Amino acid sequence: MSFLAPLYALGLLTIAAPILLHLIRRQPRDRVAFSSLLFLKQTPPRLTRRSRINHWFLLLLRVLAICALVLAFARPFMRRDSQELRVKLGRRVIVMVDTSASMQRSGIWNRATETVESLVDGLDSQDQIALISFDRQSILQVPFGEESAVPASEQRQVVLEALMTLAPTNHATELGDALQFAAEYSVSAAQVNSNNASEETPTDESGTEGTGDGGAAEDARLQRATQLVVVSDLQSGGNLRAIQSYPWPTDVSVELRLIESDNATNASIRRLPPSDEDLKGERMRVRVDNASSSSTSEFELAWIDEAQQAYPIQKVQVPPGRTRVLSLPMPLDSVVAVKLDGDGEEFDNLNHFVQPEKADLEVLYFGSRSEEVRDDLFYYMNLLPLSTRSREVTCRSINANDMELADAEQNPLVVVSQAFDQSAAESLRRYIESGGTVLGVLDGLVDGAGEATLLDALNQIGEMKLSSTPAQSRDSNEDAGTASVDVYAMFSSIDYQHSLFASFSEPQFSDFSKIKFWSHENVGGLDGDVSVVATFDDGSPAIIEKMIGEGQLLVMTFGWQPSRSQLALSTKFLPLMDSLVNPARESQEGRSISIGDVFPFPPSADATISQPDGSTVPYREIKDTELMTQPGIYRYSRDGTESRVAVNLAASESQLEAMDSDEFETLGVQMGALSDRDLETARELQLLDRELEENQGLWQWALIAALVFIFVEILWAGLTSRRLMADPRGDGASYGVRTSRVN
Questions:
Q1: Beta bridge partner(s), residue 547
Q2: Do domains 267-353 and 360-581 have the same CATH topology?
Q3: How far apart, in whole angstroms, are the C-alpha atoms of residue 95 and residue 35?
Q4: Are strands 517-521 and 482-489 parallel, antiparallel or unpaired?
Q5: H-helix or E-strand containing 151?
Q6: Annotation: CATH topology of 267-353
Q7: What was the pLDDT predicted at 676?
Q8: Burial of 475 by CB count in 10 Å (0-12 exposed, 13-18 middle, 19+ buried)?
Q9: What is 92-200+211-261+657-674's CATH number?
């Protein structure tokens, strides 16, 4: 028998009290004075050798009552063989090894393996151990012994052999997913172990499980307690979002073992997505981040071409803990990466990129051609230098039959200045709906009937109700549809939020007062779906827009040739036309993803992916992209076309400041260090003792026994007292003298 509170056994010392009381002779309560004893000195009763216990049964009852009370407070229980329990009890440890890209830093991986080896060597043969590696994904490298049928004595060697096969990868860190994966595995493995223990529980002759002393259920409960040991650099880029709402198991605790690098200096480089200004100015922006623990602030940038040849660019100074954004000139087409030199860690110093592929675009023009150059719209449009580093733009004059060939990807703009039939109108509408832009120009060089016909054709495309309204000529008193003026007109209201005028939104570029318009068309009948982008100072619309599908229909009520306006001779003409061509650049920005991200191209039976080392693999399923584990330029080939994709390390891997354990506790993770083997065994035995004591409830029976002894003692003492009152001398004669209660 064992006791949950053995110190209460000291209460057995109180047994001496009733024994002493039974040995002491007490004087009677009633006294009778005798003259012969008047001058004698009174002496108290004392224990002498001649003292004898007269009421043994009363003494026994009182001693048993005290023993039963002490036993109840000591909380007794029947324990199984403690040595057998010590053999069965074993710690369950899951070692989680970080294999993300940040573990490539100098000295970290060697320290991580040494930490795991030291931890494994410190375990006993009875302990269960499992190994999990994690980066972007969590992989169970070695399960617990009961799952792999490996004896516990050999489990440590299996873990060490698996550890030797691991190495840092280029993937990002998903620490939250890894913790959830390990916790769920711990719970499921404990459940399997509990079920197996229940099946192996011996049965008695009646066929029922023997649970009198706890049985295998207690052993299974003990085995469910699991310790997670995370061996990682705990860099702050590790994502903990997965455990923000995860109910953490109460029987799983986590110990963090931080692995630090030999070199605290680290800086990273990252190319930023280009803006419209970058593309127009043929510039590239890069961001340099310097760690707060760095001891240097001077670095050097260099271009890297396909042959891995370096071309120095410039030196840059970034203080520790700061970030700097640089605008660099666009490199040569052969350059595939930008490199940062000057820090102690190389794993995040190279950023690959795909330069915008040069798109071949063609602007289509349908309209009359004039022999007089000053009156030819196409002539001035064809002179515009719309080609840039990322696109080659040419202009071509077409006829009405060619309109059905217009493609929104290859032909970003179609300019019409002449009436066309219904078939061409339907073709242009389909072209606009797919994302193209049609610009109708009312240049006023044909007769009024022709103008009305052009408006009708444009109305068919946009389902509009535009009409030519009479206008008061400024140089005559006659009404006409065209206002031909000696006193020029100007723009008075412009929507600078519109993409056509967005490049002029800054105050230094928004002045259109120097552009004069000699004549323009007066157009009315604007409905709710038609918006006015710009108006003249006489209140008539200058540019009208109607959105159709993914594209737009624009109507200019003026021509840009010098006979109609000064627009073609101004510096505003090129940006206006460029804004109409610029939106249609399907592949101006090269694709860039992080290792492990979804590949931006679909798989196909004939698709292949060329890796940076030159090898080619088929791309028939999404899982084939799991082979993309190295940063570099990958080439996707299908149907004779090739597209390039830049693959880099995740930016989060450069966030190297270590996380604090308080962040885990805030998310509900139960923290706790891996305890000593003897202390762990003692703690588990104490938990088992408490559970056994609660299940057996022997203290209740001891308390009942104490009450029974006290009740019998009261009855027996009362009976004995009445007997003494009736015969104080014990000879059968009654003298009626009152005596005290027996001792």
A1: 552
A2: no
A3: 96
A4: antiparallel
A5: none
A6: Immunoglobulin-like (2.60.40)
A7: 56
A8: exposed
A9: 3.40.50.410
Structure tokens at 228: 């997670």
Length of the chain: 743
Give 460-465 contacts, CB < 8 A, sequence gap 24+. 460/422, 460/425, 460/429, 461/425, 461/428, 461/429, 461/432, 461/548, 461/553, 462/429, 462/529, 462/530, 462/546, 462/548, 462/553, 464/525, 464/527, 464/529, 464/530, 464/546, 465/525, 465/527
Residues near 297 by beta carbon (within 8 Å), at least 6 away in sequence? 290, 317, 318, 319, 320
How large is the C-alpha radius of gyration of the chain? 48
Please indicate whether residue 17 or residue 310 has the higher confidence score (pLDDT): 310
Higher pLDDT, residue 525 or 469: 525
d(CA 467, CA 488): 23
Q: What does each C-alpha distance from 646 to 480, 578, 611, 637, 703 come to in angstroms?
A: 60, 29, 11, 15, 79
Contact (Cβ atoms closer than 8 angstroms) between residue 151 and residue 215: no
The crossing angle, in degrees rounded to 10, of helices 698-726 and 56-74 is 160
User: Does residue 552 surpass a pLDDT of 80?
Assistant: yes
pLDDT at site 259: 94
pLDDT at 502: 86
Q: In DSSP terms, which residues pair with 595 in a beta bridge?
A: none
| Measured distance CA(607)–CA(602) in Å, rounded | 9
Q: Of 138-152, 191-205, 230-244, 266-280, where does mean pLDDT reach its minimum?
A: 191-205
Residue 467's φ and ψ, nearest 5 degrees, are: -145, 155
Distance in Å from the first CA to the final CA of the chain: 34
pLDDT of residue 145: 76
List the one residue out of 563, 514, 560, 517 whose CA is nearest residue 540: 517
For residue 345, give Cα distances in angstroms to 222, 265, 290, 292, 406: 45, 7, 12, 14, 53
Residues linked to residue 437 through DSSP beta bridges, in sequence order: 413, 552
For 53-72, write each residue's pLDDT tens digit. 677 787 788 888 888 888 87
- Could you read off the pLDDT of 76-100 as tens digits, one per residue? 777 665 444 444 556 789 999 999 9
Q: Is pLDDT larger for residue 681 or for residue 455? A: 455
The CATH code of the domain at 360-581 is 3.40.50.880
Q: Is the pLDDT of residue 249 over 50?
A: yes
What is residue 62's predicted lDDT score, i.e. its pLDDT?
80
Q: Which of 132, 115, 123 is nearest to 90 (CA)?
A: 123
- Cα→Cα distances 561→368, 380, 527, 553, 577, Å: 13, 7, 29, 21, 14
The sheet with strand 283-290 has its strands ordered as 267-271, 283-290, 323-329
Check if the beta carbon of residue 709 is closer than 8 Å to that of residue 262.
no
- Long-range contacts from 154-160, C-beta under 8 angstroms, 24+ separation: 155/128, 155/129, 156/120, 156/121, 156/123, 156/129, 159/95, 159/116, 159/120, 159/129, 159/130, 159/131, 160/116, 160/117, 160/120
What does the domain layout of the chain look like in residue ranges? Answer: 2-82+694-726, 92-200+211-261+657-674, 267-353, 360-581, 591-648
> What are 302-313's pLDDT values in tens digits?
999 988 999 999
Dihedral of CA atoms 593, 598, 600, 606 in degrees, nearest 10, equals: 130
The amino acid sitting at 596 is G
Cα separation, 670 vs 252, in Å, equals 7
